[in-house]
């Protein structure tokens, strides 16, 4: 979902003739019924993400699940006069109902970082949360596209894959680590340095979603700009440290929530468009991959009616990016292996 689309939804629904206009628009578009479930919907990301998904006209049912607090979030969001019907579910005994029939499941459930922590420091708590949620997904909506936000993404995606394999439901086309926030940041920071219009900027970000595993391919950024080597290094580091920048600014009150909700809404919208048969929907995501020797890797992915339609290659890299790629592989490998080991030993 682009910002202009968001604005136009808000515009359409903010006048007195709103509901009439909204109804007419949706009935003429005949968008298929799509259920989206958000697990962790009462949290810092979950709440604004619920709002943004409520604004998305491709959603017909919005299912908001958390261990507590979701009835309130659902009641609040449900009053917004857009297409989707909203329901809130709280506690494990309602998880099946929350998931049943879902086309897309977005998972921002789990603890966020505090200053001084790495994403890997979240593993001990979040690995178990992700494992139990994915066990339920395998049971109640095995065909859903899963958008994994919970950190450490480099490990939680492999955990999800193992859980689905054990359940006999694994389809590599349907599992995505959400790395869209890295792309959002790279676009913003690049536009600022290159002095180009941010809405025109395209920057692929590959690798994983932690520190040096985040590799923005600034040599492929458009519109082209004549940036110095020092500027490229600084932009790369700022993108890699974007999450930490927010964690430190929030000083103990969590990590990125609002920009993550925006990024999560963009990625979920791309998944829905792909499911609906919109051609040429391409986003970066951490998926099962043959792009490197690692089993999972983030790169550009073409989305289609079954999820991943094609994992795109890296394209030409600068020498600096080649070195970055080489440097990130060992860390990414060990995070992936840690996730696989956890899923198979617990
Ligand atoms: N992929 C990415 O780019 C990003 C990922 N994150 C990650 O997203 C996660 C969530 O962050 P915040 O929303 O800020 O945290 P938060 O603490 O504000 O919210 C997390 C929510 O998850 C819920 N939760 C915990 N266990 C659950 C379970 N078993 N089932 C359902 N819900 C459960 C909590 O009740 C809470 O409402 C963190 O792991 C964070 O590191 C954050 C920013 C960016
Ligand atoms: O940095 C964190 O802990 C949250 C995150 O993944 C991000 O903001 O990119």
Describe this structure in words.
This protein is an alpha/beta fold. It folds into 2 domains: 35-178, NAD(P)-binding Rossmann-like Domain (Rossmann fold, 3-Layer(aba) Sandwich); 180-336, Lactate dehydrogenase/glycoside hydrolase, family 4, C-terminal (L-2-Hydroxyisocaproate Dehydrogenase, Chain A, domain 2), CATH 3.90.110.10. It is 46% helix and 16% strand. The chain is built from 12 helices and 11 strands. The chain has helices spanning 3-12, 18-29, 46-54, 70-78, 95-99, 123-140, 153-167, 180-194, 229-240, 242-250, 258-275, 319-345, and strands at 35-39, 61-66, 85-90, 104-107, 145-148, 175-177, 205-207, 214-216, 281-288, 296-304, 307-311. A 6-stranded parallel sheet has the order 3-2-1-4-5-6, sandwiched between helices. Residues 9-28 have low confidence and may be disordered. The structure holds 1,4-dihydronicotinamide adenine dinucleotide and oxaloacetate ion. 1,4-dihydronicotinamide adenine dinucleotide is lined by residues 39-40, 42-46, 66-67, 108-113, 122, 126, 129, 133, 149-151, 153, 178, 181, 209, 254-257, 260. One of its GO terms (molecular function) is L-malate dehydrogenase (NAD+) activity. The active site is at 209 (proton acceptor). Homodimer.
């Amino acid at each position: 979902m682009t910002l202009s689309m968001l604005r136009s939804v808000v515009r359409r629904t903010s006048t007195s003739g709103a509901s009439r206009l909204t109804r007419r628009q949706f009935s003429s578009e005949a968008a298929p019924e799509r259920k989206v479930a958000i697990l962790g919907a009462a949290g810092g990301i979950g709440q604004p993400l619920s709002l943004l998904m409520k604004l998305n006209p491709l959603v017909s049912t919005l299912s908001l699940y958390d261990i507590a607090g979701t009835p309130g979030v659902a009641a609040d969001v449900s009053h917004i006069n857009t297409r989707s019907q909203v329901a809130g579910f709280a506690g494990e005994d309602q998880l099946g109902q929350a998931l049943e029939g879902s086309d897309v499941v977005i998972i921002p459930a789990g603890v966020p970082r505090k200053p001084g922590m790495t994403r890997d420091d979240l593993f001990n708590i979040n690995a178990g949360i992700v494992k139990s949620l994915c066990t339920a997904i395998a049971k109640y909506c095995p065909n859903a596209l899963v958008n994994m936000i919970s950190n450490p993404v480099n490990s939680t995606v492999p955990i999800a894959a193992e859980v689905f394999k054990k359940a006999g439901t694994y389809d590599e086309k349907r599992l995505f680590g959400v790395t869209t926030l890295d792309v959002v940041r790279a676009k913003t920071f690049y536009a600022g340095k290159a002095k180009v219009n941010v809405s025109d900027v395209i920057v692929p970000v590959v690798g994983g979603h932690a520190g040096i595993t985040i590799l923005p391919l600034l040599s492929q950024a458009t519109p082209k700009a004549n940036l110095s080597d020092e500027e490229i290094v600084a932009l790369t580091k700022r993108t890699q440290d974007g999450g930490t920048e927010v964690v430190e600014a929030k000083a103990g009150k969590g990590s990125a929530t609002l920009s993550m909700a925006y990024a999560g809404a963009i990625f979920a919208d791309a998944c829905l468009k792909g499911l609906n048969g919109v051609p040429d929907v391409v986003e970066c995501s951490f998926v099962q991959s043959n792009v490197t020797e690692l089993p999972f890797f983030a790169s550009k992915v073409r989305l289609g009616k079954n999820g991943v339609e094609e994992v795109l290659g890296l394209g030409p890299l600068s020498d600096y990016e080649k070195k970055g790629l080489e440097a990130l592989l060992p860390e990414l490998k060990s995070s992936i292996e840690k996730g696989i080991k956890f899923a198979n030993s617990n």
